[in-house]
Amino acid sequence: MQDNISTIICNAITINKDPLKEKIKPIINQLEKVFEENKEAILNANKIDQKNRNGFLIDFDHLNRIFSNVKQEPIPYGEVILSQKDDEKQIIYGIQKMDYGTVLVIHDGDPYILLEMAIRNLMAGNATIFSNHGFMYGTNQLFIQIFQNVLKQFQISKYFVQLYITENFDEILGNYANIDLVVCIGDSLLQQKVLEKSKNKTIVCGYGIFELYVEDEKNIEFIKKIKNSTPKIQIYAKKGINIEDLDVIFVEDIEEAIAQINYTGSHYASSIFTSSKENASKFIKKVKSKTVTVNTSPTIEQVLDIQESDLVYEKTILYPFSLSLSGEREEIIIYEK
Questions:
Q1: Looking at CB atoms within 10 Å, which of 207, 235, 278, 299 has the fewest?
Q2: Which phi and psi angles does 252 have, rounded to 5°?
Q3: What ranges do the domains of the chain cover?
């Protein structure tokens, strides 16, 4: 039985963050180690999800890429940067990067999203509440347990990462007074629903959802391989193309395909498979996705396009070279980087 949403939010907002700053890097290193050590348990949980037709096969190479990518980035939480000294006014100008607080991540249940956003929010000093409809529940729940156990090893509250399964996102979005940032990762329908209901600052992303437009039969076998390896792909095909064993939406021409992708697509990554240079150029220019490929899998560049800078806010600091508090002048120290 999961906790109710009031308990989950209370757990998140009462976290003591004081011990976190110096432990973030060791926590990430330990997480990477524990995920590798628990590979068999993860695969077993993943098999149950697949058996229940509630998941896809976990790729450990992808998990390793997530750890590799985040470990290369600086940790922004609590960072203080000296931006300027004004000798004439005797004032120091600085910037401190602060955590948002409690971040609600609504997504489609993709465990890769859960892992990367949990790590990124930890690097930003945020508590994260994940919420989805229960897709890949076993795998996601195990990921949460691993994350929480590692946090406890470092005497950090396990409530930095929590999972809430619901069929009604209105319920959790209604707690806007105790949520500081909403991140929605999913298809356009999920994004629109959350944007309509959210009263908090909201970031949306279509990570991991792809669209293909096929207008000849030259690459059919390659397209079947893409579809089999990546479940979240919508294929549009020009009428008359023979595509067996694939769920496709047939369109009249490239103009209708572009219109469909721009209206209902994720705006994350799209591909065209064509022998026409003219149509390839038209697709590149008109499709509103962040990544567009020609005769290549749209999954070639899978990057969660939410940056660490999106998960913190900057506080501007102004103060004098020295400050008189009780008749005596005391020097103020600021970290320089």
A1: 278
A2: -70, -45
A3: 5-79+98-207, 210-300
Kindly state which CATH superfamily the domain 210-300 is placed in.
Aldehyde Dehydrogenase; Chain A, domain 2 (3.40.309.10)
> What is 201-225 written as a DSSP string?
-EEEE-TT-EEEEE-SSTTHHHHHH
- For the purposes of burial, counting CB atoms within 10 Å of the CB of 75, is it exposed (0-12), middle (13-18) or buried (19 or more)? middle
Task: Specify the pLDDT at position 334.
Answer: 47
Q: Rounded to an integer, what is the distance from CA 6 to the centroid of its chain?
A: 24
Per residue in 85-142, pLDDT tens? Answer: 666 767 777 788 899 999 999 999 999 999 999 999 999 999 999 999 999 999 999 9
Domain 5-79+98-207 belongs to what architecture?
Answer: 3-Layer(aba) Sandwich (3.40)
Nearest CA-CA partner of 111 in 181, 163, 58 = 58
131 and 104 in contact (C-beta within 8 Å)? yes
Report pTM: 0.81
Q: Which of 268, 254, 149, 276 is nearest to 210 (CA)?
A: 268
